[in-house]
Amino acid sequence: MKIIKKDVIPSTNEFIKEQYESLDNYTVVTAKYQTSGRGRTTRIWESNDSDNILMSLLIKEFKERTDLNLLSLVASMSVHKFLSKYINNLYIKWPNDILVDNKKICGILLEGKMNNNSKMIVIGIGININQTTFNEDINHLTTSLKKELNKDFDINLLTLELSEILVNDIEEFLNGSNIFLDYIKSKLYGINKQIEYTRNNVLCEGTILDIHTDGRLIVKESDQILYINSGEIKIKR
User: Fold this and answer.
1) Burial of 195 (0-12, 13-18, 19+ CB in 10 A)
2) What's the rounded Cα separation, in Å, for the pair 228 and 212?
3) What are the C-alpha distances in Å from 146 to residues 126, 143, 165, 172?
4) H-type helices in the chain, by residue range?
5) Phi-psi region at 84: left, alpha or beta (left = phi > 0; alpha = psi -120 to 50)
């Protein structure tokens, strides 16, 4: 595992996507600040300079397991395991957010290129560590290690610790392990709860039942059992 540290770049994911052919498998790219950091569905990822973990991991060797949905869950498990060393009440919100109670502390973005000429997946991770204030519209929905524990953390040490956990878990997954599924189910946010979600551009309601072995969310909607590939879920209050 090689770690490339940057002060300011547009995006750690974009850096790897542009440079991946010359980078080694399991290269980690970190940044103190991103000028164009992104979350899922084109959202902006807000982060103060030098306050948080902003990193991406390159995967170029797959041993035939290249499923983005499953790798997303593996990454979620890795981050949950890492953060659980420091804080309690952590949940995995499908498909790949980490929450402290009901507040978001981490987002994960997977992007890939799969064709006959090249294969690569980049896992982008943003974790709120030392930042304590966020934009007004999300401040009540967001937290960080410092907000929860009232102390500062060494970003470089935490990034190294997380990177080692992540690479180890991915290696186990690529070698055939499915242990992550049981882990995800045991930490799943909203299990057996009523949720709202969008399906075919229509707002729907259902109950989370489980996660399928292929990573899809299993939801009961009225008398139907549905398998959800992607989307945003919200627990009904």
Assistant:
1) buried
2) 9
3) 15, 8, 21, 31
4) 12-19, 68-83, 145-149, 155-174, 179-186
5) alpha
Reduce the DSSP state of residue 161 to 3 states and report it. Answer: helix
CATH number of 144's domain: 3.30.930.10
* Structural domain that includes position 107: 2-186
Residue 40 has pLDDT above 70, yes or no: no
Helical packing angle, 179-186 and 68-83, nearest 10°? 60
* Number of structural domains the chain divides into: 2
> Residue 33's closest CA among 11, 58, 8?
8
Confidence band for 230, pLDDT divided at 50, 70 and 90? confident
The angle formed by the CA atoms of residues 98, 193 and 224, to the nearest 5 degrees, is 115
0.90 exceeded by the pTM?
yes
With vertex at residue 63, the alpha carbon angle to CA 60 and CA 65, rounded to the nearest 5 degrees, is 90
Q: Residues in the chain, how many? A: 237
Specify the amino acid at residue 144: S
What's the CA gap between 68 and 230, in Å, rounded?
11
Pull the structure tokens for residue 46.
Answer: 């807000």
β-strands 27-34, 2-9 pairing: parallel
Same structural domain for residues 40 and 23? Answer: yes
Contacts of 32 (CB under 8 A, 6+ apart): 6, 7, 8, 49, 50, 54
